[in-house]
Amino acid sequence: MGTGFLILDRVMTWEILIAFVINVGEMRHRLDRVVERVGGRHQFGRPLSDFQGVRNTVVEMHIATQTARQALHAAGAAVSAGHRATAETAVAKILTSEANIRTAQAAVELFGGEGVLTDTGMEIGVRDALSGPIYSGSNAVQRQKIAKALGL
């Protein structure tokens, strides 16, 4: 008796790991497209990639993508090793869902006016990313899981 929640928690853990690794793939693809775009588009006689602000934004996208990937990998490794890894999975979900939104918005901005057009496919990334903090247990719920793991 009372094992229903544990079963649900286990299922949700795997759901998070599987669903959000897809987000990392989307983020990586988005980053690749942005790197190509800023290297090939010129403003003021120079590639966009020559501008420090543009470079910094692309680097932040890279850091967000790598951090999300590493967090999901660590959580997945812990779960595969037989650990419950509730807090680790919650951290990975929050990092990934929030990074997905930031990188999607940055990509739209770096594509300029074309970023909001359906032809580039960048705008759909924003719409898709907005649901990440909500599904598979909202980020507010994930923060409560982390708080509980910290003994709060």
Strand % is under 5%
* Average pLDDT rating: 93
In one word, what is the shape? elongated
E-strand count: 2
Short description:
By secondary structure, the chain is an all-alpha fold. Helices cover 72% and strands 3% of the residues. It is built from five helices and two strands.
What is the topological layout?
Elements: H1 4-40, E1 42-43, E2 46-47, H2 52-80, H3 86-110, H4 122-129, H5 139-149
Antiparallel strand pairs: 1-2
Helix pairs in contact: 1-2, 1-3, 2-3, 3-4, 3-5
Considering the chains and any ligands shown, give keywords for the structure:
2 strands, Butyryl-CoA Dehydrogenase, subunit A, domain 3, mainly alpha, 72% helix, two-stranded antiparallel sheet, 152 residues
Mind explaining what this structure looks like?
This protein is mostly helical. The chain is 72% helix and 3% strand. It has five helices and two strands, in the order H-E-E-H-H-H-H.
